[in-house]
Specification:
- By secondary structure, this protein is an alpha/beta fold.
- It is built from 8 helices and 9 strands.
- Strands 1, 2, 3, 4, 5, 6 and 9 form a 7-stranded mixed beta sheet that branches.
- Helix 3 links the parallel strand 4 and strand 5.
- Helix 2 packs parallel to helix 3.
- The longest helix is centred in the N-terminal third of the chain and has 20 residues.
Length: 222
């Protein structure tokens, strides 16, 4: 009876973790984190939007780094982007982890999802996934002053530098793709698929779940 209650309690904890943070720990010591929908930052998104809350993932990443039973971390991405500062903060945390980390882009890794995808020590993308590369933008009222444009420029430089430090893409090529006016009908930038992302050095390898887990197991056992 006690064992049944313990198993039920453990199942409830797993279910609660999946609902709140989209994370789960496997029996082999692999922690799976999902970054889906829109990355929610300082402002709460509507109830009808799928969102990843950065205030959930930050303490989860800290706990994962400290847990002795975690051998590696798989970050699964299917995100449209979202809050720039929140996304970049999460990317910096992932990049600074000592635990083996592998990212897998499924569906999309758009906008600020690009730094998140390259933040892991090794990155994978399925052939059908896409990634949108575009410059920083903001919606709503902005102050039309030189300081505003300098802020955008400096933020863009931080994002671009992070991507280039954690991937093999050339900065000049990345900037050129971000500023293309002919790729998107109502915007500027470029959409690349899985094979194109690997060819340009943005992502390490084309592959799915099996390949990502195999790479993570190899890193954990090294």
């Amino acid at each position: 009876m006690a064992n049944e209650e313990k198993e039920k309690s453990e199942e409830n904890e797993v279910e609660e973790s999946l609902i709140k943070t989209g994370s789960i720990s496997t029996e082999s010591g692999i922690e799976c984190l999902s970054i889906i929908g829109q990355i929610e930052g300082h402002y709460i998104l509507g109830d009808n939007q799928k969102a990843t809350k950065y205030e959930h993932l930050i303490p989860l990443l800290v706990a994962t780094e400290q847990r002795r039973d975690v051998r590696g971390v798989l970050i699964v991405l299917n995100t449209m982007g979202g809050d720039v500062e929140a996304g970049l903060a999460l990317a910096e945390m992932i990049a600074s982890m000592k635990k083996p980390t592998v990212s897998l882009v499924l569906g999309g890794g758009h906008s600020i999802g690009v730094p998140l995808a390259v933040a892991a020590k090794r990155s994978f993308i399925v052939p059908s996934a896409t990634m949108t590369l575009h410059p920083v933008r903001i919606s709503g009222v902005v102050i039309g002053a030189p300081q505003t444009y300098r802020y955008f420029h400096d933020m863009q430089e931080r994002i671009t530098d992070f991507i280039c430090r954690h991937s093999h893409v050339q900065k000049a090529h990345l900037c050129e793709l971000m500023m293309r006016p002919d790729e998107l009908s109502t915007d500027i930038g470029t959409i690349v698929d899985g094979n194109e992302a690997v060819k340009m050095g943005l992502i390490d390898e084309v592959g799915g779940l099996a390949e990502a887990l195999a790479a993570l197991e190899g890193m954990a056992n090294a």
